[in-house]
Every structure is written in C-alpha cells, then in structure tokens.
C-alpha cells in the first residue's frame, strides 16, 4: 500500500525503525492542503487550503507496517485515515480527528521533522511557513 508522510515519519531512520518493510519511493506534493501543528501533542496535521500544498514522502508499506502506524498515530482516536488519488494511485495518510487551534511543536519533534525534510529533499521554507500560526 502507498502511504504519504508529512510529519515525523518523513525521518527515514524513524520510519524504518517503526515500519521495517517501508520503502521510500519519492517526494510528492499534496495540493489543496496546508501543514499545521495542533492538539496537546503539538503534532503535525494537514487541513484543506486552496492554492496551498504540503510536501511529503511517498512510502510503500506492508499491512503489518500499517498496523504499527495505526498504533503510533493513535488511530482512530487522535488521527483518522484520509485517502487521496495521485496519478491514479490510491494513497493513505492520517489527519487529526479534532481540529484544535495551532500549537507550536516541541523542539525535539520539530528536529525530527527537519531531519525528515532533509532525508526526503523537501522544501524547508514550507515547513518554516507552517510554524507561523
């Protein structure tokens, strides 16, 4: 199955540790959404926004990887699954169930995401813009 990562799972070391079968395929952009951070966990989330995009990593994951991600993402309590089509392929990602207001991420969590942006060769400017509520 195809999985779109946009937060801490962009970090290749963390993703491989969490999902042993995962294979990073390429970077892609999810159009019509923007990146934000929210909830008491100050975690990454996406929300619809016209003429905006969220850069991310496209991974091939196994069913057992998906089950591990479900646990990590606290599915279906904190995150729910969201499916979209990219060049005819069905892709799964997670989006928060409760859309609380913006919460600045912890430095540690943000550093994991920054490493992921480097790992996937993503545009760091978009991440920086998302940190301005």
Feature tags:
alpha+beta; single chain; 41% strand; five-stranded mixed sheet; Hypothetical upf0131 protein ytfp; globular; 133 residues
Describe the overall structure:
This protein has one domain: Hypothetical upf0131 protein ytfp. The protein is 28% helix and 41% strand. It has helices at 12-18, 63-72, 107-119, 124-130; strands at 2-5, 23-38, 43-60, 79-86, 89-96. A hairpin with a 4-residue loop joins strand 2 (23-38) and strand 3 (43-60). It is globular.
Order of helices and strands: EHEEHEEHH
Q: What structural class do helix, strand and pairing data support?
A: alpha+beta
Based on CA inertia axes, which overall geometry fits?
Answer: globular
- Helical segment count: 4
How much β-strand is present in the residues?
A: 35-45%
Distance between the termini: 33 Å
Helix-strand blueprint:
Elements: E1 2-5, H1 12-18, E2 23-38, E3 43-60, H2 63-72, E4 79-86, E5 89-96, H3 107-119, H4 124-130
Parallel strand pairs: 1-5
Antiparallel strand pairs: 1-3, 2-3, 4-5
The gist of it:
The protein is an alpha+beta fold and 133 residues long. It has one domain: Hypothetical upf0131 protein ytfp (Roll).
């Amino acid at each position: 199955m195809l999985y779109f990562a946009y937060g801490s799972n962009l970090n290749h070391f963390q993703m491989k540790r969490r999902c042993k079968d995962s294979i990073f395929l390429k970077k892609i952009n999810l159009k019509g959404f923007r990146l934000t951070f929210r909830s008491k966990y100050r975690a990454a989330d996406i929300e619809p926004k016209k003429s905006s995009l969220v850069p991310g990593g496209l991974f091939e994951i196994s069913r057992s990887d998906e089950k591990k991600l479900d646990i990590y993402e606290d599915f279906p309590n904190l995150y729910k699954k969201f499916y979209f089509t990219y060049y005819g392929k069905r892709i799964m990602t997670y989006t928060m169930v409760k859309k609380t207001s913006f919460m600045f991420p912890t430095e540690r969590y943000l550093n994991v995401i920054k490493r992921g942006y480097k790992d996937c060769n993503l545009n760091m400017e978009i991440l920086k813009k998302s940190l301005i509520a």
